[in-house]
Amino acid sequence: MxxxxxxxxxxxxxxxxxxxxxxxxxxLQENVHLFAAVLDGEDAGHLPRGVGLxxxxxxxxxxxxxxxxxxxxxxxxxxxxxxxxxxxxxEPLLEFRKVNLHxxxxxxxxxxQAGVKRLIFMSxxxxxxxxxxxxxxxxxxxxxxxxxxxxxxxxxxxxxxxISAKTGMEVVIVRAPLVYGPGNxxxxxxxxxxxxxxxxxxxxxxxxxxxxxxxxxxxxxLVCCATHSxxxxxxxxxxxxxxxxxxxxxxxxxxxxxxxxxLIPFPPSLMRLAGKLIGKSSAVERLLGSLTVDSSKIRRELxxxxxxxMEQGLLxxxxxxxxxx
Length: 325
What we know:
- There is one protein chain.
- By secondary structure, the protein is an alpha/beta fold.
- Helix content is 41%, strand content 13%.
């Protein structure tokens, strides 16, 4: 954002979450008026000063953000019903659609009516699929969403493009693989805990490749997508650009944690057989298989370069994690 230009007003949904909190810190370095959506009763005490807190209702097919969006220039939409490993909803896709599709479309229409110039939508690499084999995912791949969450995100992408075509509001879509960093929840935190406890892992014989994305690299890419003129109407896949095997990742985490890696050789074919016998084939395949992302488009077209190497991101993540022990 040009420091010599008039300040833009930026509105962030999902501002108190893992990515949102990092994005706010990044945007405070820019010449913007920054506003964060906060749910009634939600703890926003960790958000820094200088951010305008806007109390809103949960995003849904009936939510009304019209008054909030007046005089906003850019919306960065992070809020979502995220993927849940043990989803108890009777019809998970319908629940995901309420927020991720219908809520997103409603927000976008209200943003367009309020005169918002650009909306950046945080999607997921799951829109492409969950396994790549030897060929990384690209923006030109046919969509192949593998679960209800990624289906709802793909449907939202389609809806946003339609709204953009009808209203003229610029839309930018960002798809990311697993995001890690200080404060990370979910699978990456579980892996850190496992390595820290020194639990033996039968993964030494795994020869896969995985793409990851350090949270501060993601937030830098989101700022680039929010401000670069050539980003309008585009979809970008974003990653650290340094693919790594599961055993090598565990080894690097173990070294940083000053713990033994305890990687044990075990035939992946037997792991797949065991997964099939206990009805966990998809989970085992996600563990053993490859998921890589070609992020060359955003680098080529927007000149974006990740500000942090993966090694730096892992060290920062481990440093945060050690403070929690």
